Amino acid sequence: MDASMILKIKPELTRFLNQFDGYFGRVTTRRYLDLYVEGQLSNLPRKSIEPMADAFGEPPRNLQEFLGLFRWDEQDVRDQSQQYVARRHAHPQSVGVIDETSFVKKGDKTACVQRQHCGAVGKTENCVVSVHLGYATPEFYSLIDGEVYLPQETWHQDRERCREAGIGDEVVYRPKWQMALEQYRRAVANGMRFAWLTFDEGYGGKGPFLQELEQVGQNYVAEVPVSFPVWTKRPAVLYRARACDRPQGRPRHYPRLKVKNNPKVQVQNVLTYSPRMRQIAWQNYYVKDGSKGPMVWQAKRLMVYLSDEQGLPTRPFHLLVVRNALDHQEVKYFLSNAPESTPVETLLRVAFTRWVIERAFEDSKTELGMDHFEVRKYLSIQRHLILSCLSHIFLSEFCLKYRGEKPGSDALPSPDRHGDADQGVGSGRTLFAQVCRTDRCAIGVNATTQRQGSPQPPASNDRSFTRHRHQTQRHHQMSLETLVALYY
Fold first, then answer.
1. How many distinct helices (H) and strands (E) make up the chain?
2. Beta strand 220-223 with 196-199: parallel, antiparallel or unpaired?
3. What CA–CA distance (Å, rounded) separates 395 from 364?
4. Is residue 314 within 8 Å of residue 305, measured between CB atoms?
5. Which of 165-169, 290-294, 306-310, 311-315 is least confident?
6. N- to C-terminal Cα distance for the chain?
7. What gap in Å lies between CA 22 and CA 33, rounded to an integer?
8. 471 C-beta neighbours (distance < 10 Å), count
9. What is the largest CA-CA distance in the chain?
10. Do 437 and 420 contact (CB within 8 A), yes or no?
11. What are 233-255's pLDDT values in tens digits?
12. Is residue 376 a contact partner of residue 110, using CB atoms and an 8 Å limit?
């Protein structure tokens, strides 16, 4: 970053933060918003309260009270930031990404801390977990919401411990998928529009979550567990009793499934045993040139049926199965409620966009110190997460304006515009532009199967894919014929 760009940051940041003036009751309180965001954007190696306060010549207690005691409406700040993004970065290809991240913490006094799976270290650890909503377009990406997850047994059921950590009685346990659904609804109420939502199997495996999105008409591409049940053939439904049926016992409710129907099967068994799925050939989809060579995934899809709240079959859904071209044991299963005419390339692009929020977490932790907080109270942590989203919005927009590169039309660049796989916010190029900097049949980036973990650069494909790269770049249109069940 040169001197001219450094001089641009302060006035740009001042104009950006001025829109939040009305949510702070006092001018003295509002002043600490500038200090906190500037501290997160600074080059301090540690961005907790004490180093930031020392850098600005402020008593650390003032910033501590700004997070935990001073009166200002953090929820209105979050809403205003989402409205700002909705006004400036609306896009017909926008993707909302739901995921969670974790922060390693010692002791048992920090609000919501407990021993649980910690994606930051890849094992069970003492940590705090938060659920986040990200927003990505071909030119822009950022975190736009985040909430601390309250564990049920160790915190929700111990209200005395909650009160000691500043957790009010109105804050109760909610499953993570319910938290994500509330964040989605809040963003929509603030004017955010998502052409797609995508999320991992921790959310895709929750039937009520998928049903809620279906009811509001939100298109999604969800990774699902290998045990997710589907019908490969629509089961027969009885809508009324036949005249020849004699009433025996309690009256039956209609509509209902016919007794003789094929059962639902797990998606992993659909891949292995379904005659229709086995007849579909794997197709190679060239992703992009990574740091270690070209990346290729293989995919095929089948239309399947789910069960609704009454256990009746739904309309057809896409079951998309992809595997790593180098390691056929690495298989992912995706489900989508998109129209049947949606190309496989579009589904794959959305599915692998989830890597964007992983990079957003990495940017927020390494560049903004989102995991450096040393406060313990619930309100302080929650405010810190919202301010981190605010700082990330500004950082992404600033880099886009002064150092970013926009892709070609329709977010799909020409073949000669491949970029490095490891570009991020701090490097001067927007990540999602790199994700979409692929050919027409490209799908995104190579994503890791572990939840919450940092993205790892994929291995390069062998020379056979390099030699036949022109073949993998061709458009492949899957057949959508009438489907059959696994077994008759």
1. 17, 14
2. parallel
3. 10
4. yes
5. 290-294
6. 66
7. 12
8. 10
9. 88
10. no
11. 988 877 766 555 555 656 666 67
12. yes
- Find how far residue 67's CA is from the centre of its chain: 27
- Name residue, tokens 């494909």: 461
Q: What is the pTM of this model?
A: 0.80
Nearest to 318 by CA among 331, 305, 299, 332: 305
Specify whether the CB–CB gap between 77 and 390 falls below 8 A.
yes
Q: Tokens representing 138?
A: 């071909």
* Whole-number CA gyration radius for the chain: 25
Structure tokens, 318? 């896409």
By C-alpha distance, which of 226, 317, 314 is closest to 270? 226
Q: Tell me the C-alpha distance between 319 and 201, whole Å.
A: 14
The encoded tokens of residue 181 equal 């659904």
Q: What is the pLDDT of residues 261-292, one digit of tens each?
A: 788 899 999 999 999 999 999 999 876 666 67
* Token reading at 230: 């589907």
Which burial class, exposed, middle or buried, applies to 26 when counting CB atoms under 10 A from its CB (0-12, 13-18, 19+)?
A: exposed
* Residue 248 tokens, joined: 């025996």
User: Are β-strands 220-223 and 313-324 bridged in parallel, bridged antiparallel, or unpaired?
Assistant: unpaired
Return the number of other C-beta atoms located less than 10 Å from residue 425's C-beta. 26
Peptide linkage before 92 cis (omega within 30 of 0): no
- Which tokens go with 421? 């796989």
Strand partners, 322: 299, 332
Phi/psi of residue 260, nearest 5 degrees = -90, 90
**Around 478, how many Cα atoms within 13 Å sit in the side-chain half-sphere?**
30
Which stretch of 148-162, 239-253, 352-366 has the lowest confidence by average pLDDT?
239-253
**Length, in residues, of the chain:** 488
**Cα dihedral: 11, 393, 375, 65 (round 10):** 40
Q: How far apart, in whole angstroms, are the C-alpha atoms of residue 119 and residue 452?
A: 4
User: 485 near 262, Cβ under 8 Å?
Assistant: yes
Three-state DSSP class for residue 148: strand
Q: Give pLDDT tens digits for 31-59.
A: 999 999 999 999 899 999 999 999 999 99
List the alpha helices (DSSP H) in 57-175: 60-68, 74-88, 159-164
How many whole angstroms from its chain centre is CA 21?
A: 30
- The answer to whether residues 199 and 98 touch, using CB atoms and an 8 Å cutoff, is yes
Q: How far is Cα 29 from Cα 435, in angstroms, rounded to an integer?
A: 40
Chain centre to alpha carbon of residue 339: 21
* Alpha-carbon gap, residue 468 to 12, rounded angstroms: 48
Task: Give the residue carrying structure tokens 């069960």.
Answer: 307
Taking the C-alpha atoms of residue 485 and residue 236, their distance in angstroms, rounded to an integer, is 12
